[in-house]
Amino acid sequence: MPYRFEDLKKNCQTEWRAYIEHSFVQQLGDASLAPEAFQHYLKQDYLFLIQFARAFALAAYKSPTLSDLRQAKEGLQAIMDVELDLHISYCKEWGISEEELANLPEARATLAYTRYVLDTGNRGDLLDLHVALSPCMVGYGEIANWLNSRRETVRGKNNPYDAWIAMYESDEFQDAMRAEILWLDERLADVSPSRFDQLNRIFSDATRLEIDFWEMGLKQSD
Ligand SMILES: Cc1ncc(CO)c(N)n1
């Protein structure tokens, strides 16, 4: 049987669920999340996205074909045009200026995750890099869908985090997520069992670093 993206998730189900259904996510969905925790997360996510944009640019650099190049561009575009724009305006609403954002120190969880992905991409090939990026691209789309499937989730003006959910359920983000899964399914179909094990390690590492990112938000750790 050829491997698929689903197999990466299946092989680290516990970590994947701990990421998707993290208490930060649940509290964001039911509007009980402390604003300070959200603001801390949002500021760090701004710094995170800058490094992730670099990682997608690295994917572009490592792309041997036009279609690979297009896929890297999709990711870069989702970050720069969908996420970063919203983060900046969201931060303004919450009283955080672009100047404050520019001078912010990176939390350890931000450093660990982003540098892990960049290092994996530098050291490995394009598939290693896309696998390292996939918990981010696919996870947040899945989180929005999971939140929408829960009765506890509050949507609309009674939830101050509604725009966050709206961003990740948007067609633009969901399309980018589906394109990433398709791209990975095509490449994973050709890999050997030992190569798949290597890729699974990267996927599981990145997923664990996503969990740490939520923890950093909840605890407002630096
Ligand atoms: C930490 C983190 N993971 C994933 C995404 C989705 O791009 C994000 N904005 N931040």
UniProtKB/TrEMBL annotation:
Keywords: Hydrolase, Thiamine biosynthesis. Residues 11-218 form the Thiaminase-2/PQQC domain. CDD domains: TenA_C_ScTHI20-like. InterPro entries: Haem_Oase-like_multi-hlx, Thiaminase-2/PQQC, Thiaminase_II, Thiamine_Salvage_TenA. Its EC number is 3.5.99.2. It holds the Pfam family TENA_THI-4. It is an enzyme of class 3 (hydrolase). Gene3D superfamilies: Heme oxygenase-like (1.20.910.10). It catalyses: 4-amino-5-aminomethyl-2-methylpyrimidine + H2O = 4-amino-5-hydroxymethyl-2-methylpyrimidine + NH4(+); thiamine + H2O = 5-(2-hydroxyethyl)-4-methylthiazole + 4-amino-5-hydroxymethyl-2-methylpyrimidine + H(+). Belongs to the TenA family. This is Aminopyrimidine aminohydrolase. It comes from Marinobacter azerbaijanicus. The lineage of its organism: Bacteria, Pseudomonadati, Pseudomonadota, Gammaproteobacteria, Pseudomonadales. The gene is tenA.
